[in-house]
Amino acid sequence: MSEQGVVAMSECLFRCNDIGKSFGEHPVLEHMNFALNAGEVVGLVGPSGCGKTTLLRLMAGLDAPSSGELSYRSANARRAYIFQESRLIPWLTVMQNLLFVTGKSAEGQVLAREALLAVDLAAYAGHYPDQLSGGMRRRVALARALAYGPEIFLMDEPFAGLDFPLRMQMIEFLNALFARKSMSVVFVSHDTRELVQLCDRVCIIGGTPATVRNVMTMMPKLGRKDAPGYLREMEDEMLRSMGP
């Protein structure tokens, strides 16, 4: 039985069951199998163009698989998709961007305020996107997803385009947020440094068409910094699994 098959469906938010995807006569994904548990961060990594974003779009319901099945614990599971760009509405303030998702009811305003507090941006509710730094705009996009109240967060290289120091700040920020909120996340990245610090498990995708080559289970996050060489070792194993 595969690693994914060991997990009972009652413990999963969703499972990819032998998923395949073709565009015309060109297969992109085949026999794709893995699961996401409640409160877990699962990473997807592989060479550029291998189908990571295609798979994420299938999970989001933005496209349909050509074969196989996506099984959800809840038939109407709420999913929030966080893109590589912040995609904020430039003529709306930070708060208005969130209210665009939650609605302007009293409950919607409470959800929006709580989401801004969660990402430490309550003081910037009246600012416009072009008045914020790149990292702050990414946090607003995250707040917008939080305000929506999803069961599953789908993150497609959310740090793309950020310089190294800002990426490290965002990793630290997300790790703290994941711990506070017990979020269930599929996190797509090509940066092994992000994955070894943020994820509980990492699925390495490769081949033509692409499938899951390896699933790495990480040690608990609290112990990683106290294990000399562990993060480097895990990065090296990812790179080996991604090789030809």
Mind explaining what this structure looks like?
The radius of gyration is 18 Å and the shape is globular. It has 244 residues and is of the alpha/beta class. The two termini are 25 Å apart. The strands form two sheets. It has a six-stranded mixed sheet, with helices on both faces. Strands 2-1-4 form a three-stranded antiparallel sheet, covered by helices on one side. The protein has two domains: 4-77 and 152-242, P-loop containing nucleotide triphosphate hydrolases (Rossmann fold, 3-Layer(aba) Sandwich); 88-150, no CATH class. The longest helix has 18 residues, at 164-181. The protein is built from eight helices and nine strands.
Query: Order of helices and strands, N to C?
Result: EEEHEEHHHEHEHEEHH
Neighbour order of strands in the largest sheet: 5-6-7-3-8-9
CATH architecture label name of the largest domain = 3-Layer(aba) Sandwich
The coarse overall form would be globular
Taking Cα atoms only, what radius of gyration do you get, to the nearest Å?
Answer: 18 Å
Low-pLDDT stretches: 1-10
User: Any idea of the CATH class of the largest domain?
Assistant: Alpha Beta
Instruction: Give the percentage of residues in beta strands.
Output: 25-35%
The number of helical runs is 8
Total of domains: 2
Q: What percent of residues adopt helix (DSSP H or I)? A: 25-40%
Q: What class do helices, strands and sheet pairing give?
A: alpha/beta
Number of strands: 9
Oligomeric state of the chains in view:
single chain
Would you give the CATH topology of the largest domain? Answer: Rossmann fold
Span between N and C termini?
A: 25 Å
The main β sheet shows up as: 6 strands, mixed
Q: For the residues shown, what is the average pLDDT?
A: 88
CATH superfamily of the largest domain, please? P-loop containing nucleotide triphosphate hydrolases
